[in-house]
Amino acid sequence: MALVSQPLDILGDRQSGQDVRTQNITACQSVSNIVKTSLGPVGLDKMLVDDIGDVTITNDGATILKMLDVEHPAAKVLVELAELQDREVGDGTTSVVIVAAELLKRANDLVKNKIHPTSVISGYRLAMREAVTS
What we know:
Layout: E1 4-7, E2 13-16, H1 18-36, E3 46-49, E4 55-58, H2 61-67, H3 73-88, H4 93-112, H5 117-133
Antiparallel strand pairs: 1-2, 3-4
Helix pairs in contact: 1-3, 1-4, 2-3, 3-4
């Protein structure tokens, strides 16, 4: 599918197609790559410096993601997913971001291979049901 740009009433452009989907996946992969190295018992610490120069050293995915200034809408969804995971469970924020980004990447590969997105979603839902029944 080619990149389609349609004018909007508010002097903006609407874009769609494979290129936009790939950009969204790339943004999500970037967020995932930031926290991926901090996963596990030998995870690396990250040194984060905020706007006023305060330094935070941590390997906690939730803390890293809270301090990121994410502007891309798709990447923001991953950050919100991590916040929800932290609120509901209190752990697993790094893992949920990595798994979600990988699922998106694999789904994009399937769509590139001409598998309809509805079929991919149906497959993911079936996999989810099987995972929770085990």
